Automatic annotation (TrEMBL):
Bias-annotated ranges (Basic residues): 37-80
Keyword Coiled coil: yes
Assigned keywords, A-Z: Coiled coil
PANTHER family in the record: NUCLEIC ACID-BINDING PROTEIN (PTHR34689)
Protein name: PNPLA domain-containing protein
Chain coiled-coil ranges: 209-236
Keyword flag DNA damage: no
Length: 283
């Protein structure tokens, strides 16, 4: 009996040990699966991050290349613009050459008035103190400016033509001023005429308004007169009917209404016949 009880206890212990073993196995399995999940998640995260970093790097590289290309393009554009400007300036200078003619050192006396004016106004030189050789040297500079058409005013090329042009301009300006004055005077007279015309129109409008008012008044009076005549005709008809019916008193009242002036006269006459107190009219 003792042996059987010990056997049964051993079996129970064995079962418990097996159960504990299975639990530990399941726990270890679950812990292993959890760590694997974490590893996979981490690896996925790192992969995503690497992909993003790669994309950002590529984007930065593209932006840098684009910026560099833009700068290069702008630089090229500026250079081209500068070249075009230089070319234009060169062309301008070459086009200006000989614009007002070409002179030489031998033209000193023919161009002396313009040269002397240029020397005094542009170069600020007192020509009275210069010798003949100094004047000729200065004239060479004048010749260069003349031929390249780089002088500041047209009067230094041909003073007679310049003065003629200025005279024409002054004459034209004066004529324009006269025209403007005449135009202003004309406008002023036009304004006066307009004011008078407006005044006449206002008087006409007022006159027409008065005429319309008088006509309306006349029509109103005619209407009232017609209504009064109609009323009198009606009263006369009533008087005639009452007289025929023998109602003399009622007919008399209507007669008084029809002839108020006659009644007033009769009353005044009656008062006169009565006379003052103590006076008896003759029988």
């Amino acid at each position: 009996m003792t042996s059987s009880s010990s056997d049964s206890s051993e079996e129970e212990d064995k079962k418990k040990a097996e159960e504990n073993g299975s639990d530990s196995d399941s726990e270890s399995g679950s812990s292993e699966s959890s760590s694997e999940k974490k590893k996979k998640k981490k690896a996925k995260k790192e992969k995503k991050k690497k992909k993003k970093d790669k994309k950002d790097k590529k984007s930065k590289k593209n932006k840098k290349a684009e910026k560099k290309g833009k700068k290069k393009k702008e630089k090229k554009k500026k250079k081209k613009k500068g070249d075009d400007l230089t070319e234009a300036m060169r062309g301008s200078v070459s086009n200006q050459f000989g614009k007002y003619g070409i002179i030489k050192a031998e033209d000193f006396f023919s161009k002396k008035p313009e040269f002397m004016l240029w020397a005094q106004e542009v170069r600020k030189v007192n020509t009275d103190i210069l010798g003949q050789m100094q004047l000729k040297d200065l004239f060479k500079e004048y010749v260069e400016d003349y031929n390249t058409a780089t002088m500041p005013s047209k009067k230094y090329y041909n003073i007679q033509v310049f003065e003629q042009q200025m005279s024409n301009k002054r004459r034209k300006k004066k004529a324009e001023t006269v025209i403007d004055t005449a135009l202003q005077s004309s406008l002023a007279s036009f304004d006066d005429e307009k004011a008078r015309r407006d005044e006449v129109l206002a008087l006409r409008a007022k006159k027409q308004e008065n005429q319309i008012s008088s006509e309306v008044q006349r029509l109103r009076m005619n209407k009232e007169k017609a209504e009064d005549m109609k009323h009198q005709a009606m009263l006369k008809t009533q008087q005639s009917m009452l007289s025929k019916a023998g109602q003399v008193e009622a007919a008399g009242k209507i007669s008084e209404r029809l002839n108020p002036n006659k009644v007033d006269y009769a009353e005044r006459r009656a008062k006169k016949l009565d006379g003052p107190v103590g006076f008896q009219p003759e029988g």
